Amino acid sequence: MAKNTGKDYRVGSVDDRSQVFNPKTENWVKRNDKTGRFMGQKADGEPYKGVAKEHDGRKR
């Protein structure tokens, strides 16, 4: 579970979530790790804060 520090950042990543970049839409898409379903995407093209990227090794 990600912990808020009170200093405008989190320690750790959000549980049971990951994100992947969709090159077709050029947006980041959030995915539920347990079901594999896509949950939503960001319209601004920036990645989600505190959610692990699928290729970065923070997820088991």
UniProtKB/TrEMBL annotation:
Region (Disordered): 1-60
Chain intervals with Basic and acidic residues compositional bias: 1-18, 27-36, 43-60
Domain of life: Bacteria
Protein name, as recorded: Uncharacterized protein
Provenance organism: Paraburkholderia ribeironis
